[in-house]
Amino acid sequence: MGTSRRMRFVHGQIAWMLATAMVLVLLGSLSYELFFVVSLLGFLIVTELTAPIVITPAWRRRLRWIIALGLLGFAYVVVRRILEILPPEVFG
């Protein structure tokens, strides 16, 4: 039973990422940063939608580390974008 839930999670994430890539290509705005952010959003949604009610398996507890790394990557993308927007006079 645990394997089927795990595979449902994996299939959901793969479907989200493929749909994300197709939509971004159709809109003509495919970039690594945007794909990463929307995929992270999908990862968080799929994690919540497939969460068990009572018992949390060990593989789901390890997802916290992936979420933490994803949020660090998201923070990096946000800081980079903010630094691109700010005028050079702010730094110096």
From TrEMBL:
InterPro entries: DUF8044. It holds the Pfam family DUF8044. The chain crosses the membrane at residues 9-28, 34-56, 63-83. This is Uncharacterized protein. Keywords: Membrane, Transmembrane, Transmembrane helix. The keyword Transmembrane helix applies.
